[in-house]
C-alpha cells in the first residue's frame, strides 16, 4: 500500500540514486540543484537548509512516498499565492525501477488529497518538459490538464531550449475524480 510522509534527510541518498544522467537531472529539477551529479547533500541543503527556497516555513512541503519495501517517490508542494490557495507541485520523481507501474499516479493522487483536503487548495499546478512524455502522461492520468501556457527554458547541458508545458487540476476536477 502506498503512503506519504514528510521528507527525511535519510531519503536523499535514495532519491539521488534514481537520477542516472545529466538529462534526467534537468528533466527532474531544471537547474534548481546546480550541476550534475545530484547528491544527497544538495537535496538536503535545498529541502532542509533552504526550506525549498521558500522564506515562509509554512510554504514548503516535501513529501516522500513509500510502500512496504521502502521509499518509492518524492515531490514537493509550495504555495504560489499570498492567499495560500494555489499550490505548485515540483521535483516529482519515482524510483527508476518502479516507473510505469502506477507509483507516480498513486503518489500524485495522495499529494492531491493532501493539497485539497488538508491544505484546502483551490488548484494545483506543475510544469513538465515536453521531452519527458512518460511524466506528462503520468500527470494527465492523475487528472492534470494543460492550461494553455508554455514557455522555453535554456538548458545548461546543451544549446537547446526545452519547452515547459504547464498543467493544472482544480478542486472541482479533483473532487469529481477522487471523492466520488
Count the beta strands.
7
Q: What is the C-alpha radius of gyration, as a whole number of Å?
A: 15 Å
Order the strands across the largest sheet as they lie in space. Answer: 1-2-3-4-5-7-6
Number of helices: 6
Short description:
Helices cover 32% and strands 32% of the residues. The chain is an alpha+beta fold and 180 residues long. The chain has a seven-stranded mixed sheet with strand order 1-2-3-4-5-7-6.
Description:
By secondary structure, this protein is α+β, with helices and mostly antiparallel strands. The protein is 32% helix and 32% strand. The protein contains 6 helices and 7 strands. Strands 1-2-3-4-5-7-6 form a 7-stranded mixed sheet. Strand 2 and strand 3 form a beta hairpin. The chain is globular, with a radius of gyration of 15 Å. The model has no long low-confidence stretch (mean pLDDT 95).
Task: Record keyword descriptors for this entry.
6 helices, 7 strands, alpha+beta, 7-stranded mixed beta sheet, about 180 residues, about 30% helix
Element layout with pairings:
Blueprint lengths: L2 E4 L5 H6 L4 H8 L10 H10 L10 E8 L2 E10 L6 E9 L8 H16 L4 E7 L3 H9 L3 E10 L6 E10 H8 L2
Parallel strand pairs: 4-5
Antiparallel strand pairs: 1-2, 2-3, 3-4, 5-7, 6-7
